[in-house]
Amino acid sequence: MEKSLQTALIHSDYQAPAGFRGCQPAVYHASTVLFDSVEQMRAQNWLDKGGYTYGLHGTPGSFELEARLAEIEGGKHCLLLPSGLAAIALAVMSFVKSGDDLLMPDNVYGPVKSLVNWLSRDYGITTRYYDAQVGSAMADLILPNTRLIWVEAPGSVSFEVPDVGAICAAAKKQHVPVAMDNTWAAGLAFKPFAHGVDIVLQALTKYQSGGSDLLMGALITREQKWADRLALTHMRIGMGVSSDDVYQVSRSLATLKLRFDAHDKSARELATWLAGRPEIATVLHPAFPDCPGHAIWKRDFTGAGGIFSVLFDEVYTESQVDAMVNHLKLFKIGYSWGGSHSLALPFRMPEARQEWQHRGQLLRLNVGLEAVADLIADLEQGFGWLQAQG
Ligand SMILES: *Cc1c(COP(=O)(O)O)cnc(C)c1O
Question: Is residue 387 very low, low, confident or very high in pLDDT (cuts 50, 70, 90)?
Answer without folding.
Answer: confident
